[in-house]
Write a structure and sequence with these properties.
Elements lengths: L7 H18 L4 E2 H7 L8 H17 L5 E3 L12 E3 L2 H4 L8 H14 L5 H13 L17 H7 L2 H12 L3 E5 L7 E13 L2 E8 L4 E6 L3 E7 L16 H7 L7 E7 L5 H4 L4 E3 L2 E6 L2 H9 L5 E5 L1 H20 L9
Antiparallel strand pairs: 1-3, 2-3, 4-5, 4-8, 5-6, 6-7, 9-11, 9-12, 10-11
Helix pairs in contact: 5-6, 11-12
């Protein structure tokens, strides 16, 4: 009778557990030769295959908050002349956590808020770790009750929100494509500093490696996914001591007051405006703008191809600009001046 082969996930879990036990039980640095010999899943691999699998396992453990230290020179308890690994108590142990009832309530409300988003698994893991420390998170506190994540949480915690947060915590340089309305999309290489939200909009702050300056990026304008920048290592940059997300947000052009305009655009006309569409509503094009007079001038420039439907402030600005143009033409001799 054939014994069923353990699933890939189970094999990986057992390998990670054995790796943790081996590194925690050792008095010093453990050589790669020892790991390749003693741990199922590594035995029989050549150096390249071992490095690939071991790197993936180290990354998985790092996501769990466990860092494997590496060094080439060994102490008296290691194998001389080989790269060694270990997990020290400082890398593994969790400090005592003492939360007040109000802090417990805040933690559980936050976990419930993010529960149905990309951060749901991380929130659940955090609660599990706190319970393992003996912290009672189940006792109802002031203001507790059923918490519905709702639209706000789902809009805030997108996949890119979770990715950006991970890279910030790991101090990893990132790359992504950024498309600001009315401008050509560009590739951005960024050393991320922080995430901050205003309403249901999230902004990513960091040092733009190509512009050599601090920049702010609205997360919803990132095309595709955010990824780790090749050729860079975790922790190879620091966040300046004078960096303040709040001050950066106040001074950023990305934070200009944004409103939505509802436009009727004729087919195959005014493509620059149509490309800025964020959604369609009752056959009309919805775009965002921050300066009503600038948008009014842009609309008038497309002649009768575009009509402003809302908001009323924009409709008035367009009508006023068209009236001004008509008055100027009349003073110059009416429509005949255009063919003179």
């Amino acid at each position: 009778m054939n014994t069923p082969r353990p699933s890939r996930q189970r094999q990986q879990t057992e390998r990670l557990m054995n790796l943790l036990i081996a590194l925690r039980a050792s008095r010093g640095w453990v050589s790669r030769k020892t790991l390749m010999t003693a741990i199922d899943g590594y035995s029989g691999l050549d150096d390249i295959a071992f490095d690939r699998k071991f790197s993936r396992d180290k990354e998985l453990l790092r996501h769990m908050g466990i860092t494997i230290a590496t060094r080439a020179e060994h102490d008296a308890y290691g194998d001389a002349g080989e790269t060694g690994y270990r997990i020290s108590a400082d890398d593994y142990a969790m400090d005592d956590v003492d939360l007040t009832p109000a802090e417990v309530a805040a933690v559980t409300v936050a976990a419930a808020f993010w529960s149905e988003t990309e951060l749901g698994d991380s929130s659940a893991q955090a609660l599990t770790k706190l319970r393992a420390l003996g912290i009672d998170l189940d006792e109802a506190g002031p203001g507790r009750g059923a918490i519905e994540p709702g639209t706000a949480a789902r809009r805030l915690a997108s996949a890119n929100f979770a990715d950006a947060l991970h890279h910030i915590n790991a101090r990893e340089a990132i790359g992504f494509t950024y498309h600001k309305p009315g401008q050509t999309a560009r590739k951005v290489r960024l050393e991320p500093y922080a995430l901050l939200s205003r309403g249901d909009r999230v902004y990513l702050f960091g040092f733009d490696l190509d512009r050599q300056a601090r920049r702010t990026f609205r997360l919803s304008r990132v095309d595709g996914r955010i990824g780790k920048l090749g050729g860079r290592e975790p922790g190879d940059y620091t966040i300046p001591a004078d960096f303040s997300p709040e001050l950066a947000l106040q001074s950023s052009s990305e934070m200009a007051v944004v409103a939505e305009a509802k436009l009727a655009i004729r087919a195959h006309r005014a493509d620059p405006l149509r490309r800025r569409q964020i959604r369609e509503e009752e056959g009309a094009v919805i775009i965002e703008y921050s300066d009503v007079h600038a948008l009014a001038a842009e609309i008038v420039g497309f002649g009768d191809a575009v009509e402003a439907l809302a908001p009323a402030e924009l409709v008035r600005a367009v009508d006023t600009r068209r009236d001004t143009i008509r008055s100027s033409l009349n003073r110059l001799g009416g429509a005949d001046v255009l063919s003179a």
